[in-house]
Design brief:
Strand content: under 5%
Radius of gyration: 13 Å
Structural class: mainly alpha
Largest sheet: none
Number of strands: 0
Shape: globular
């Protein structure tokens, strides 16, 4: 993609695209059935998004992903983080 595109996203979101790309690359061969791996990803995404994830919500996300009910991607985690029901 165009560097201007990424700079525009960085400016609007405050999220460094290099950090996002590093995270995405690290996910390629990750074992999402492993609770420790999933917790690490949630923590990294929360840090990138500058959001706090309460333990109860983290547990819910981990259970959902490790059980195979949800796929692990930014959209899924973002939706779960924003849905505090």
């Amino acid at each position: 993609m165009d560097n201007k595109f990424f700079k525009s996203i960085e400016k609007k979101t405050g999220v460094n695209m290099d950090d996002v790309m590093q995270l995405a690359n690290s996910l390629q061969n990750a074992n999402f059935k492993d609770e420790k791996t999933v917790r690490s990803v949630i923590s990294r995404v929360a840090k990138l998004a500058n959001k706090r994830v309460p333990k109860e919500l983290e547990d819910k996300i981990v259970k959902s992903i490790t059980s195979g009910k949800e796929k692990l991607d930014f959209d899924t985690i973002s939706k779960m983080m924003n849905n505090k029901k």
